[in-house]
Amino acid sequence: QQRAQPSSGSGFIIDGDGSILTNNHVVKDAESINVTLNEGRTFKAKTIGTDPETDVAVIKIEGHDLPTLPLGDSDRLRVGDWAIAIGNPLGELRGSVTVGIVSAQGRSYLNIYGGTPQFQDFIQTDASINFGNSGGPLCNVRGEAIGINTAINTSGQGIGFAIPINLVRHVAEQLIAHGSVRRAML
C-alpha cells in the first residue's frame, strides 16, 4: 500500500506575479504543493516548469503584496565574497539565515542526493546548508540572490553548493515562457 510522503524545501519569489524559484528535486513527483511565507500566509502552488538537467523549477502562487527577492549577477562573484544562505533547514526552521563565503566556483561532477543534474557549474560555499535548504536563495551582502541552494556534502561540514543565478535566470525564462527548456543539439 502506498502512503503519501510529505517533504519540505525552500524557494523564493522573484516577481509580483508570484513566480517562485526552487529546485526540481524539491517539487519532483509532488501531487500538491503548499507554499508558506515567513510571515505565515499559505498558498497552493502550481508547477510552471521543471528542468532536471539543471535542477531548476519554477512554481507559481496567486497573491498580492508578495515579497520578492531581486536577482544579482553571479558572473561578478569572486572567491572570498560573502554568501548568505536562507531557507527552511530540516523542514522545521523556516527563515533560517547562515553566513559564509564563496569558497569556489565552477564545481562539477557532484553526485547530488535526490537526483544528479546533468549540467553542473556550482558555487561552493561554507554557509551552512542542510536538508530543507534546497531551493532557497544564496544571497550577496546587497540582499540579491546569487544562486539557488542545491546540495550538501553529507560526509563533510561547511561544504554546500548552489546553482549560479545567471544560469537559473536563463532556465527560468524558458520555463515561464514554454514550460520546459529547449536546448540545441549537435
Structure description:
- By secondary structure, the protein is mainly beta.
- Helices cover 10% and strands 34% of the residues.
- It has helices at residues 24-27, 165-178; strands at residues 12-13, 19-23, 33-36, 42-51, 56-60, 82-87, 96-107, 122-125, 137-139, 145-152, 160-164.
- The strands form 2 sheets. Strands 6-7-8-11-10-9 form a 6-stranded antiparallel β-barrel.
- Strand 1 and strand 2 (19-23) form a beta hairpin.
- The longest helix has 14 residues, at 165-178.
- The protein is globular.
What is the topology?
Blueprint: E1 12-13, E2 19-23, H1 24-27, E3 33-36, E4 42-51, E5 56-60, E6 82-87, E7 96-107, E8 122-125, E9 137-139, E10 145-152, E11 160-164, H2 165-178
Antiparallel strand pairs: 1-2, 2-5, 3-4, 4-5, 6-7, 6-9, 7-8, 8-11, 9-10, 10-11
Task: Please outline what is shown here.
The protein is mainly beta and 186 residues long. The chain has 2 helices and 11 strands; from the N terminus they run E-E-H-E-E-E-E-E-E-E-E-E-H.
Major β-sheet profile: 6 strands, antiparallel, barrel
**How would you describe the shape?**
globular
* Uncertain parts: none
Strand content: 25-35%
- Count of individual helical segments: 2
- Using the CA coordinates, give the radius of gyration: 15 Å
Give a quick set of tags describing it.
186 residues, globular, 6-stranded antiparallel β-barrel, 2 helices, 5-stranded antiparallel sheet, mainly beta
